[in-house]
């Protein structure tokens, strides 16, 4: 926070210096100058950051700066560039200040979570209710404790095939290991990989498609399981052929993700997907004869209007900022209309 405030103070000083020769600034330029003057006049020495609330009003002023009403001259455009950076920096600071202020109440709430969990579990028990997570937890607990039940289910199941395994979690992996344990073994706790029945457990997954983190899916479990089976029977089979996309799309995605996914660090690798190129399937893979595909892409950023502009085509003239999602929708709609000759 201290470094960010110092950066904001430096930006305020730059705005004052750049605007020294502006006699009649446009509205948003004047607001940037006023916010900078007020911030510097408060003499933020940044020596005591125990109470950041005194900087909150200044951050609010910077974060709400408009980017529309600036003159076309070099001076005001220079102020606009610095003000845009100051606005973003202030928004980040505001998030930190709000988090710091709410942190004590969050801590107090977290301290009551165990109590709440116990009471919720007791209420469900009295009402004979179970949720999805309870089912998995109870199944694992029963199979660990009741070896007779574990033996029954181990002997009843010949093979286990799990699809979309990247959307599973550690608890579900433990359940699978208990069911795939060697018939003559009864481990105390969760069986190890060496105690699993040969040719009984199979799973299919793609770490790049893990999208259920919100319900407990953990791609690290998928990667850990892959490592445990590496070099063992029957081993890993990499499905690298893509039957859904054309060769031009596959080539584009390979080139794009080769750069993006190469930035993973060693510490984050357990929780992220590794890059692996895809290959187009042989033949047309069901595509119509004569079908040709091409890649058309544009990098979209939030776009701002000039004061004299009525906005971008298709945009509400009253809107000050076209967000990235809206910009993408506009580009797609424009592409469709253009293709139709409209």
Instruction: Give me the Rg, rounded.
Output: 30 Å
The main β sheet shows up as: 2 strands, parallel
The separation of the N and C termini measures: 52 Å
What percent of the residues sit in helical stretches (DSSP H or I)? 40-55%
Taken as a percent bin, the fraction of beta residues is under 5%
Q: Output the structural class.
A: mainly alpha
Beta strands, count: 6
Order of helices and strands: HHHHHHHEHEHEHEEEH
Number of helices: 11
Can you tell me the overall shape? flat
Tell me the strand order in the biggest sheet. Answer: 1-2
The overall pLDDT average reads 80
**How many structural domains can be distinguished in the coordinates?**
4
The stretches of 5 or more residues where confidence is low (pLDDT under 50) are: 305-320
Report on the structure:
This protein is mostly helical and 342 residues long. It is built from eleven helices and six strands. A two-stranded parallel sheet has the order 1-2. Strands 3-4 form a two-stranded parallel ribbon. β3, α10 (247-260) and β4 form a beta-alpha-beta unit. The longest helix has 38 residues, at 74-111. Mean pLDDT is 80; it is low at 305-320.
């Amino acid at each position: 926070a201290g470094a960010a405030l110092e950066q904001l103070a430096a930006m305020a000083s730059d705005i004052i210096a750049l605007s020294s020769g502006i006699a009649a600034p446009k509205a948003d330029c004047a607001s940037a100058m006023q916010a900078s003057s007020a911030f510097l006049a408060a003499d933020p020495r940044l020596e005591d950051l125990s109470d950041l609330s005194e900087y909150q009003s200044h951050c609010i002023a910077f974060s709400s700066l408009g980017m529309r009403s600036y003159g076309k001259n070099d001076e005001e455009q220079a102020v606009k560039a610095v003000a845009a950076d100051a606005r973003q920096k202030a928004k980040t600071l505001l998030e930190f200040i709000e988090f710091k202020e709410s942190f004590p109440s969050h801590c107090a709430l977290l301290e009551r979570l165990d109590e709440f969990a116990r009471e919720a579990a007791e209420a469900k028990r009295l009402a004979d209710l179970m949720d999805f997570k309870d089912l998995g937890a109870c199944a694992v607990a029963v199979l660990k404790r009741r070896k007779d039940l574990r033996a029954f289910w181990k002997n009843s199941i010949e093979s286990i095939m799990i699809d979309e395994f990247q959307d599973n979690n550690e608890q579900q992996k433990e359940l699978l290991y208990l069911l795939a344990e060697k018939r003559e073994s009864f481990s105390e706790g969760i069986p190890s990989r060496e105690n699993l029945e040969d040719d009984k457990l199979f799973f299919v997954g793609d770490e790049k498609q893990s999208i259920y983190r919100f319900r407990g899916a953990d791609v690290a479990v998928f990667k850990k399981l892959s490592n445990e089976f590496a070099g063992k029977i029957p081993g890993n089979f990499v499905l690298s052929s893509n039957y859904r996309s054309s060769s031009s799309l596959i080539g584009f995605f390979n080139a794009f993700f080769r750069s993006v996914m190469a930035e993973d660090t060693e510490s984050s690798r357990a929780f992220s997907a590794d890059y692996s190129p895809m290959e187009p399937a042989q033949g047309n893979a069901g595509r119509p004869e004569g079908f040709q595909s091409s890649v058309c892409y544009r990098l979209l950023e939030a776009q701002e209007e000039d004061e004299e502009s009525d906005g971008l085509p298709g945009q509400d003239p009253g809107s000050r900022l076209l967000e990235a999602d809206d910009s993408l929708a506009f580009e797609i709609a424009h592409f469709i209309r253009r293709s139709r000759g409209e």
